[in-house]
Amino acid sequence: MLGSIFGKKIGMTQIFTKDGKVVPVTAIDAGNWFVTQIKTQDKDGYSALQLGLLKKRYNQDSLAGNWLKIKKQLFSLFKEIKVKEEDLNNFKIGQKISLDKTVLSENDNVKVSGKSIGLGFQGVVKRWGFGGGPDSHGSNFHRIPGSVGNICSQGKVVKGKKLPGQTGNKNISIKNLKIIKLDKDSDVLFLKGSVPGKKESLVLINKQG
Q1: pTM score over 0.70
Q2: Which CATH superfamily is domain 4-119+170-207 in?
Q3: Which residues of the chain fall short of a pLDDT of 50?
Q4: Residue (of 1, 93, 76) closest to 40 by Cα position
Q5: Do 5 and 99 form a contact (C-beta atoms < 8 A)?
């Protein structure tokens, strides 16, 4: 059984609990992943499963014959999940990895890792939440960073100063997200709250504890 799984973000919605409360959730599609290579300690120096995400225009029937020679044509991307050496015998090449093959269950806490939405080059007001200067016509200080030098002859800028620059597009992780619902028929899980990235973003879900 796997303690982690990859998925693609579908989007956000809401689920009503039995007591009538509304819970905001993020839906993640964890389907269409197949084992494309098994890496062992003796051969590769570590034990892991290489998983491939099958392209939408193909189905499981496409994995027939000597499909390993054209796996780059069948799969859109490949990722690895570390697995204990003694657990590798439970998997085989071409096997579909679904939620049934994981230890995830409802009400579990998980850590979700992914890449945040890229917002391009931003100023200090949007990037860091600076208040900015007055909006009156006589003001010469609106959305600029302000003074960045310190009191010395060279006027060096202190390292770590909050300045304009690239915003977002970083690998981040969010811990303690609760699994509200698992739909094992369609391999979709619903996590309470938001997760990094935009629609169709790749995320890694790891069970905590």
Answers
A1: yes
A2: Translation factors (2.40.30.10)
A3: none
A4: 93
A5: yes
